[in-house]
Amino acid sequence: TVSTSSRLDAIRYVYGVPVARNLVKIEASDNDPSSSIFKMDGFISNSNYAAKKITMVLFINDRLVDCTALKRAIEIVYAATLPKASKPFIYMSIVMPPEHVDVNVHPTKKEVSLLNQEVVIEKIQLLVESKLRNSNDTRTFEEQTVGPSPSTPVGTSKDFHANLSQSGSKQQKVPVHKMVRTDSLDPTGRLHSYSQVKSIKSFEGNPSLAAVRSSVRQRRNPKETADLTSIQELVNEVNSSCDSGLLDIVRHCTYIGMTDDVFALVQHNTHLYLANVVNLSKELMYQQVLNRFAHFNAIQLSDPAPLPELITLALKEEDLEPECHENDDLKAKIAEMNTELLKQKVEMLAEYFCIHIDVHGN
């Protein structure tokens, strides 16, 4: 990079503008011989930055090195503060007495260890957490220019040809300020010009489409409910504790988009709401199970799925360290025990949930 440029300019040049514009400056120091002696300054990414992989550029006494413990500590702070998908960008320059740095950790001397490492890391970790929480209050969302969808109706064919003749071979672009989110009739979340309204009357004349819709509605809202008293009591409990205001929002809202792994932005009338998709999904599935109890639709698999493999997949999904194979025997044992348990409940699972398990545990 150009020698006269600032550190931020160097980062912008090497890593790009999106990285540089989402950085927060940090500084820390300590001059207590009994605990630690160091001076640190640098940049960390804020809550608007999102990447799939952590990037850490660490200089100690002007030498590019790695410090796994420090990197892991900062990654933990980000994981606890921001959505799972967000991995940080960190640039740090630490200056400390040379005798406090152990460079003999790795044959290439790239990995280093520090004197009073726990104290130094804790001070930096607390600073990063403080900066991150402050930056999290100013979350911004980038605007994206979206052209009209191919499915947007363009009026009659006469109007269409007129438009073509006016603009030559090029299609007229709708200005961004005249684009809006579609309503619930088009839940895919595309942007359309608000001057054009799609008529739904044309669909009603299609008997096959109407039949499909009717079939889907019946599956979504089955009339039959289980005759078990316990299930009826649970259904009544859900109905009696229903919040009419919240129900109206959920029923008539327009989906706008996901803000992170958990929250979605929805619009109801003139208000915007952050909806916790995880909690809503759990509640929805619970109510679906109650209403469809003993009347689920069975799906025939071409090759029946083996229960032990399904349980093992679930266990691996929850594993914090997927590459670690130390607990494979334990997982296999858990899968085997649960398979046997489910095989003992075959009749109940078939009657209540329409899940059919054969003698081989498939």
TrEMBL record:
CDD domains: MutL_Trans_MLH1. Residues 146-155, 163-172 have a biased composition (Polar residues). One of its GO terms (molecular function) is ATP-dependent DNA damage sensor activity. It is found in: Nucleus. Residues 138-189 are annotated as: Disordered. Keywords: DNA damage, DNA repair, Nucleus. Residues 11-133 form the DNA mismatch repair protein S5 domain. GO terms for cellular component: MutLalpha complex. InterPro entries: DNA_mismatch_S5_2-like, Mlh1_C, MutL/Mlh/Pms-like, Ribosomal_Su5_D2-typ_SF, Ribsml_uS5_D2-typ_fold_subgr. GO terms for biological process: mismatch repair. Belongs to the DNA mismatch repair MutL/HexB family. This is MutL-like protein 1. The lineage of its organism: Eukaryota, Viridiplantae, Streptophyta, Embryophyta, Tracheophyta.
